[in-house]
C-alpha cells in the first residue's frame, strides 16, 4: 500500500508541472473570465506543491546548502522575469513595482518565513537551534544590500525623488552582484559548514541519516521538472495579476499591495519547503531558504531592473518611505538579536511575525 501511494505521488509530481505549463501556454496574454482565473489559480497552487517536492529531491541529492540555493536562485530568477514583464506592461504605474516586490520579499522572508520556521521548530522541539555564523553572514549581506539599494535612494540628491542617478544605479547594481557572488562562494565552498543543519547539542549534520539519496538521473529529472514548475508558477501568477490589480483598485487599496501579493505567490515554494524542514528540526535549512531568498531577491532583481530601465519607459523608484524605513531597521535589529545566540524560542518567532503583520497592515492602510 505504501509503495502504491509513493508511486501515485511520484506520478502526480511529474504530471502537474507539465499540465500547468500547458495551461500557461493556453492562457498567456489572454483576457481571462473569472472562472478561468479560478482554474488557473488551482494549477498555480498545484505547481507550487510540485516545485517544493522536486526542490526537496534536489536538496537531498546535492546536500545542504546547495539544495536551498537551487530553489532560492531558481525562484528569484523567474521572479525577476515577472517583475520586468509587469514593468514593461505597466508604464508609470509600475515605477515602484520593483521596490515594492523586493521589499515585500525581504519582509516576508526575514520575518514571515524565518518567524514561522523558528516558531514551528521551537514549539515542536522546545528550542530552535541553528548556526549563528552562517545565518549572521546572510543577515549582514541582506542589511548591506537593502541599505544600498532601497534606503540610499531616499536620501540622494542628484536626481529628484527617491531615485538613483545613472552612476548611483550602476554602483548599486555592481555591489549587489559582487556581494551576492561572494556570499554564494562562502556558502558553498569556503565555509560550507556554517550553513549546515546542527543538532540540539551543536553537532553539524553533514547529511540526512534517514533516507538514501536519489540517483543522479532522478535528481536530473527533478531539476528539469522544477524549472518547468517554477516557470509555470510565475507565468500563471502573471496571468492572474490583472485580476489582482483590478481587485486592489476596486477595493481602494494602494497599488503597492500588488507587489505584496506577487511576492507572496512567488515565495510560496520556499515557505512550504522551509516549514517542512523546521518540522524535521532542520532549522538551518529553513533559514538558508528564508535569508537566501531575500538576498537573491535583492542581489538579482536590482541589477536586472537597472538593465531593463534603459529601454523601459517611466522612472525607476527604489527609495523606501519613512514607515518602511522604520520596519526595515526594526527587521535588521531584531534579526541580529535572534541570530547571535544560535538558538531561539517561540517568543522570537512570534515577534518576527508581529513585524510582518505590521508591514501587511501598513501596506493595506498606510
What's the gist of this structure?
Helix content is 76%, strand content 1%. The chain is mainly alpha-helical and 366 residues long. It has a two-stranded antiparallel ribbon with strand order 1-2.
Topology:
Elements: H1 2-27, H2 34-62, H3 66-90, H4 97-125, E1 128-129, H5 132-155, H6 166-190, H7 216-250, H8 256-266, H9 268-279, H10 283-308, H11 322-339, E2 343-344, H12 346-364
Antiparallel strand pairs: 1-2
Helix pairs in contact: 1-2, 1-7, 2-3, 2-7, 2-9, 3-7, 3-10, 4-8, 4-9, 4-10, 4-12, 5-6, 5-10, 5-11, 6-10, 7-8, 9-10, 11-12
Word description of this protein:
Helices cover 76% and strands 1% of the residues. The chain has 366 residues and is mostly helical. Strands 1-2 form a two-stranded antiparallel sheet. The protein is globular, with a radius of gyration of 20 Å. The relative contact order is 0.21.
Amino acid at each position: 500500500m505504501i509503495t502504491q501511494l509513493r508511486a501515485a505521488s511520484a506520478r502526480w509530481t511529474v504530471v502537474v508541472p507539465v499540465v500547468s505549463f500547458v495551461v500557461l501556454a493556453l492562457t498567456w496574454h489572454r483576457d481571462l473570465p473569472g472562472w478561468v482565473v479560478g482554474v488557473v489559480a488551482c494549477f498555480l497552487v498545484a505547481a507550487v506543491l510540485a516545485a517544493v517536492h522536486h526542490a526537496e529531491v534536489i536538496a537531498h541529492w546535492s546536500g545542504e546548502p546547495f539544495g536551498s540555493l537551487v530553489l532560492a536562485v531558481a525562484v528569484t530568477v523567474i521572479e525577476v522575469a515577472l517583475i520586468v514583464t509587469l514593468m514593461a506592461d505597466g508604464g508609470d504605474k509600475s515605477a515602484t513595482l520593483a521596490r515594492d516586490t523586493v521589499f515585500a520579499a525581504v519582509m516576508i522572508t526575514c520575518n514571515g518565513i524565518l518567524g514561522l520556521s523558528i516558531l514551528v521548530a521551537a514549539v515542536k522541539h522546545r528550542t530552535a537551534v541553528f548556526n549563528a555564523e552562517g545565518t549572521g553572514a546572510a543577515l549582514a549581506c541582506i542589511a548591506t544590500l537593502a541599505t544600498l539599494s532601497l534606503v540610499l535612494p531616499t536620501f540622494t540628491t542628484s536626481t529628484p525623488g527617491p531615485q538613483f542617478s545613472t552612476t548611483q544605479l550602476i554602483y548599486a547594481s555592481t555591489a549587489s552582484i559582487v556581494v551576492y557572488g561572494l556570499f554564494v562562494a562562502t556558502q558553498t565552498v569556503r565555509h560550507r559548514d556554517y550553513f549546515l543543519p546542527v543538532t540540539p547539542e551543536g553537532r553539524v549534520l553533514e547529511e540526512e541519516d534517514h533516507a538514501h539519496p536519489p540517483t543522479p538521473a532522478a535528481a536530473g529529472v527533478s531539476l528539469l521538472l522544477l524549472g518547468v514548475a517554477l516557470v509555470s508558477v510565475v507565468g500563471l501568477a502573471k496571468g492572474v495579476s490583472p485580476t489582482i490589480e483590478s481587485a486592489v483598485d476596486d477595493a481602494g487599496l494602494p497599488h503597492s499591495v500588488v507587489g505584496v501579493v506577487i511576492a507572496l505567490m512567488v515565495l510560496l515554494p520556499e515557505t512550504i519547503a522551509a516549514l517542512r524542514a523546521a518540522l524535521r528540526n532542520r532549522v538551518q535549512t529553513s533559514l538558508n531558504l528564508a535569508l537566501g531568498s531575500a538576498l537573491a531577491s535583492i542581489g538579482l532583481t536590482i541589477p536586472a531592473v537597472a538593465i531593463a530601465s534603459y529601454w523601459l519607459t517611466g522612472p525607476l523608484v527604489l527609495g523606501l518611505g519613512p514607515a518602511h524605513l522604520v520596519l526595515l531597521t526594526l527587521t535588521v535589529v531584531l534579526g541580529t538579536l535572534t541570530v547571535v545566540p544560535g538558538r531561539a524560542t517561540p517568543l522570537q518567532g512570534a515577534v518576527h511575525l508581529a513585524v510582518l503583520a505590521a508591514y501587511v497592515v501598513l501596506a493595506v492602510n498606510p
